[in-house]
TrEMBL record:
It catalyses: S-adenosyl-L-homocysteine + H2O + H(+) = S-inosyl-L-homocysteine + NH4(+); S-methyl-5'-thioadenosine + H2O + H(+) = S-methyl-5'-thioinosine + NH4(+). HAMAP family: MTA_SAH_deamin. The gene is mtaD. Its cofactor is Zn(2+). GO terms for molecular function: 5'-methylthioadenosine deaminase activity; metal ion binding; S-adenosylhomocysteine deaminase activity. The keyword Hydrolase applies. This is 5-methylthioadenosine/S-adenosylhomocysteine deaminase. Residues 27-49 form the Aminodeoxyfutalosine deaminase/Imidazolonepropionase-like composite domain. Zn(2+) binds at H71, H73, H219, D307. Its EC number is 3.5.4.28, 3.5.4.31.
Length: 440
């Protein structure tokens, strides 16, 4: 039988095609032209495919779908550890906004490259980002090879990037035209929050997203303060307020969703809004704990995000999955809530559903070739009864050995292929000193 040519063959001790699937022992993934050509036992896949390259991880390799960070602010790596142990409002208004006033395009690019290095090392292949000078984020993502959904942050006040929310929306339209058709980059419309955007700006964002058929990203119901403030201004909860403005729908990915009423949860489910749960950021800023079991029971698609590195303080989805799985167990004293499989699904298959990309989040013929190899040959990862359990409850970022996005190796044997990490670390330290934000 003649064999089909593949660009890359990955052989592994275990292949986990999707969170709830049975793992394939001595399995393989064949990659051709950025997509997956075959997944199955090595004997079958290698009988039908010859690979230009073989990544042989038969000894200790666990292959699984790449993780998607559904909510972050990548360039905020530059502000990691700058203002800890504060509540959201003081953190943002007294520390982060003043620091962001000093941002330049170059700093945003630098912070993004640092973020990409960190995320790839943690098994993340794609991320959803909202920030300032987002074109710089796009340029770095294009060069580094990750997958991303990127939106210029829209505020109702001037930022170093744009003088007004309207100007930021105009930039969004320009970005959508400039990056439309890119194989890995998708532009989104990103009004910041219900309390930093006036109703008219929210409506303009909604109209732009509808006209260009783009997804929207916003922060929603992050704190009790936000609920009180929006109720005072508009007489409604933030979710009901956005619904009255026509923003709630399957187009919207809403980050946080901590301070929700039972009616809000029903509304989000009815409108098919997608939620990016950010448990570690919510804990650190003392915002509270999102009602994830209730959202899941109502049928809401829940994904997982780290938020920015200034509120987390890392971009590690492996530890975020661990937190997401344990938090509801402790809160409700119920160990059955959010299983390891469900937590892994939030970062893979559910993220794909939330982002309207059925070709992501699983390893199957025709799916995008975004995959990760973890090295199981370590004391804290043996024995391996359930791969999903290992990934959620035991794996750490240093265990990630290889990362492939759209068929391209971005990390091979723990070496970042598309990022000069030594150079980035040196430049980041220099930039942090020059920014002069830390202690004197
Ligand atoms: C409009 S660009 C993004 C904007 O969001 C800020 N930000 C970071 N984390 C949070 C959060 O948890 N809630 C609200 N806003 C946040 C970031 O600093 C940028 O200014
Ligand atoms: Zn955020």
């Amino acid at each position: 039988m003649s064999r089909v040519r593949a660009d890359l063959l990955v052989r592994a001790e275990l292949v986990l095609p999707e969170p709830a699937a049975a793992p394939i022992r001595d399995g393989a993934v064949a990659v051709r032209g950025g997509t997956i050509a075959a997944v199955g036992p090595w004997a079958e896949v290698s009988a039908r495919h010859e690979g230009a390259r073989l990544l042989d991880r038969k000894s200790g390799g666990l292959v699984f779908p790449g993780l998607v960070n559904a909510h972050t602010h990548a360039p905020m790596t530059l502000f990691r550890g700058l203002a800890d142990d504060l509540p959201l409002k003081a953190w943002l208004e007294d520390h982060i906004f003043p620091a962001e006033a000093r941002l330049t395009r170059e700093l945003v690019a630098l912070g993004t490259e640092l973020a990409c290095a960190e995320m790839i090392r943690c098994g993340t292949t794609g991320f959803v980002d909202m920030y300032l000078f987002e074109e710089e984020v796009a340029r770095v993502v294009d060069r580094v090879g990750m997958r991303a959904w990127l939106g210029e942050g829209v505020f109702d006040f001037p930022t170093p990037a744009f003088p007004s929310g309207r100007a930021a929306l105009a930039e969004t339209e320009r970005l959508a035209a400039a990056w439309g058709g890119h194989p890995r980059i998708t532009i989104t419309v990103d009004p910041h929050t219900p309390y930093t955007c006036a109703p008219e700006l929210m409506e303009a964002a909604r109209d732009l997203a509808g006209r260009l058929d783009l997804a929207m990203v916003t922060h929603l119901a992050e704190t009790r303060w936000e609920v009180e403030e929006i109720t005072r201004r508009h007489g409604k909860t933030p979710a009901a307020y956005l619904d009255a403005l026509g923003l709630l729908g399957e187009r919207l990915l809403a980050a946080h969703c901590v301070a929700l009423t039972p009616e809000d949860i029903r509304l989000l489910a009815e409108r098919d809004v997608r939620v990016a749960h950010c448990p570690e950021s919510n804990l650190k800023l003392a915002s509270g704990i999102a009602p994830v079991p209730e959202l899941l029971a109502a049928g809401v698609i829940v994904t997982l995000g780290t938020d920015g590195a200034a509120s987390n303080n890392d971009l590690d989805l492996l530890s975020e999955m661990d937190t997401a799985a344990k938090l509801p167990k402790g809160l409700h004293r119920d160990p059955t809530l959010v299983s390891a499989t469900e937590a892994l699904a939030m970062a893979t298959t559910q993220a794909a559903r939330a982002l309207h990309r059925p070709d992501l989040g699983r390893l199957a013929p025709g799916a995008a070739a975004d995959l990760v190899v973890v090295d199981l040959d370590q004391a804290h990862l043996r024995p391996c009864y359930h791969p999903a359990s290992q990934l959620v409850y035991a794996a750490r970022s240093g265990d990630v050995r290889d990362v492939v996005v759209a068929g391209r190796l971005l990390m091979e044997d723990r070496h970042l292929v598309t990022i000069d990490e030594t150079d980035i670390l040196a430049r980041v330290d220099r930039a942090a000193r020059e920014l002069g934000l830390g202690p004197a």
